Amino acid sequence: MQILIVEDDSRVADALGSYLRREGYTTRQVGDGASAVAAVSSETEAVILDLGLPDIDGIDVCRRIRGVSGVPILIATARSNVEARIRGLQAGADDFVVKPYDVRELIARIEAVTRRTRTAPIPIGEQSLVKIDGVSIDLANRVVTVDGLSADLTPKEFDILAVLTRYPGVTIPRDRIIREVWKTDWAGFSRSLEVHVASLRRKLNRPEMVATVRGVGYRLLGGQRCADAS
């Protein structure tokens, strides 16, 4: 796996790159935002992105990369406030870690986010539309509209919504959502799930549509399955 490390501190980048190579990964390192966007290619399989870059804010770099590539992006940042994490996820990042981090956790998260690029196709029987209170969810084409307008969901936000949509009205445990969306049983993604759900509710403009079942998980309220999307 080739990993692009975007980090302006050369000591941090060198140490991380050396560790990843010892673990069998191929790495490429850049120290600024413009170089990061230019370095993303078909061979790039994951990006570790620092937000404090010298030329372009990391959030904007994330947004630019996402505009040209679906490569998994993991934000590694010293910004520990929740707002920075939310902005990063809304810009298209798949997950985040806060510095200083354990490199073993970083690798576990990289492995988890890259699994989304190997998601199995939706079975033929699920190629349908689900409509809920002005929200249309096309599982086959991964398209969501709200009151007729396209909802700009990130891949993870759509994946979470798709899991809930397949079982409208049924409470889906948090660990099951993490297992289906991140392809792991690791509970470390619990906080990331919460942030993605909060962003999903905002974009759907219907906070009550994705209900929290305290201590268990989430449930999609309502839903009418329609004819095949085609």
Automatic annotation (TrEMBL):
Give residue ranges for domain Response regulatory: 2-114
Which Gene3D superfamilies did the record assign?
3.40.50.2300, 6.10.250.690, Winged helix-like DNA-binding domain superfamily/Winged helix DNA-binding domain
Which parts of the sequence belong to the OmpR/PhoB-type domain?
127-222
Any one GO CC term of this protein is: protein-DNA complex
Query: What name has this protein been given in UniProt?
Result: Sensory transduction protein RegX3
- Kindly give the Pfam families that the UniProt entry links to this protein: Response_reg, Trans_reg_C
GO molecular-function terms, A-Z: phosphorelay response regulator activity; transcription cis-regulatory region binding
Which keywords has UniProt assigned to this entry? Answer: DNA-binding, Phosphoprotein, Transcription, Transcription regulation
Q: Which residues bind DNA?
A: 127-222
Which InterPro entries does the annotation name? CheY-like_superfamily, OmpR/PhoB-type_DNA-bd, Sig_transdc_resp-reg_C-effctor, Sig_transdc_resp-reg_receiver, WalR-like, WH-like_DNA-bd_sf
Q: Name one GO biological process term.
A: regulation of DNA-templated transcription
Using the record's annotations, give every residue carrying the modification 4-aspartylphosphate: D50
